[in-house]
Specification:
alpha/beta, Rossmann fold, 2 domains, nine-stranded mixed beta sheet, seven-stranded mixed beta sheet, 13 helices, 16 strands, 36% helix, globular
């Protein structure tokens, strides 16, 4: 089934709903049952849509596969999609609309941490359930919030260990996006670099629309660090990787990143620009497993696309399937019932085993260090099995404090 606009119908409130065909629902015995509704709030347009486009489609693919296999609890699943256009005001507006007007059972979406933070209060106000399928800076302790992506204890810690301890690149210069994600992830970089015997010799923040990196490249050349750490975000960051390779070059000073590849930069940049960028990730297209290969085959058949999918593309499928397992455990799609069933929920996915940690509502998963190659992909360097969300576990206990809604930050 190819995912096109014809697969969507306009709802009474103006959102777009993706619905499996009547024939498919009839074959599955679901045509007459009341649907269970998922909201997907992602950037089909806007400056951050490179992170969302594959995730939008993998979310719809998960819904289609669930419906073809009998739905959930004898009911079909309907996906209601809202284009947030990289606009946080729309994220808040659509989260409210999804819960109040469209009566969805779960909200999935948001790319940036700022988009997440405008939607979390909406979940509290209207007693919703929110799945944030994204890499982020960790520390959110909120039973109505589920994170299926990497947090610093899973992503930054192994990446720093590999770069600083194994490669001996101790003096690091940190570049990060100038909003809550970049500011907090930079603290985690500093914390782990120092804990591994390294030194942060410079740290700078950039707005999402920054395009001229010449001044900071000059400062890096003057400082002569062993490695540059990038937590830049957005399409504008593409300019950094191009300018870096044209001036300093990774053969002179290596680059390591927590965000590179999430927006499929590797598929757009040149061979020289992609070659050698070191990342830490829970999924790459070249992951050597049958599960990864099968996911890619099914995704490409569903979407009609044959290019790089990426970790963010896989996140959409992962989030829906983990939620579906919790719904089955709960015997109900109602948010409060599903929240009670979240702990220990496990799904065998394209990147391995994903398990929701009931203490934090974050996800234990396999983590991989990989390096960009000259074919637009990544080569696997090292894997870490079943890494828990250790940074968030250290500050969050939803079993002891179920009413906590705070985001905790690291102290240096």
């Amino acid at each position: 089934m190819k995912l096109t606009r014809r697969n969507f119908i306009r709802t009474a409130s103006g959102a777009l709903a993706f619905v499996s065909s009547t024939a498919a629902l009839t074959r599955a015995g679901l045509a007459q049952a009341e649907p269970i509704r998922i909201a997907s709030i992602l950037d089909a347009t806007g400056g951050l849509n490179s992170y969302s486009l594959k995730q939008i489609k993998s979310t719809a693919m998960a819904v289609e596969e669930l419906n073809q296999s009998g739905g959930l609890l004898g009911r079909p699943i309907e996906l209601v999609f809202y284009d947030s256009q990289s606009n946080n005001q729309l994220n808040s507006q659509y989260a409210t609309q999804a819960l109040v007007k469209d009566k969805v059972h779960v909200v999935m979406g948001g790319i940036t941490s700022s988009s997440r933070e405008v939607m979390r209060p909406v979940m509290q106000k209207f007693r919703g359930l929110y799945f944030y399928n994204s890499v982020y800076e960790g520390g959110v302790c909120d039973r109505r919030h589920v994170c299926t992506g990497l947090v610093p204890g899973q992503q930054v810690a192994p990446l720093v260990e590999y770069i600083v301890k194994e490669k001996g690149l101790k003096r690091g210069y940190i570049l990060a996006a100038d909003y809550n994600y970049g500011q907090i992830i930079a603290k985690w970089m500093q914390k782990f670099i120092r804990a591994n015997g390294g030194e942060d010799v410079g740290i700078e923040f950039f707005p999402l629309d920054a395009t001229n990196f010449a001044p900071v490249l000059s400062r890096i050349q003057e400082t002569k660090p062993d490695v540059v750490w990038s937590a830049l975000v957005g399409d504008a960051q593409m300019g950094f990787y191009r300018q870096y390779e044209a001036t300093i070059g990774k053969k002179t000073i290596p680059l390591a990143s927590t965000t590179y590849g999430l927006g499929r930069e590797n598929a757009t940049l040149s061979a020289d620009e992609n070659d050698g960028v070191v990342i830490s990730t829970s999924f790459i297209d070249s992951l050597p497993s049958e599960a990864a290969a099968d996911f890619l085959k099914r995704f490409k058949a569903f979407s009609g696309e044959d290019d790089y999918v990426s970790e963010y593309g896989e996140y959409g499928y992962r989030g829906v399937m983990l939620w579906a397992v919790a719904v089955r455990k709960a015997g109900s799609p109602n948010p409060d019932d599903v929240i009670k069933a979240l702990g220990g929920t496990t799904f065998e996915g394209a990147g391995g085993t994903y398990t929701i940690d009931g203490q934090t509502n974050h996800t234990t998963m396999d983590v991989h260090v990989a390096v960009g190659n000259r074919t637009g992909g990544f080569d696997l360097v090292k894997s870490f099995s079943q890494q828990p969300p250790s940074d968030t576990q250290a500050v969050c206990d939803l079993n002891a404090n179920p009413d906590d809604t705070k985001q905790y930050e690291p102290e240096l």
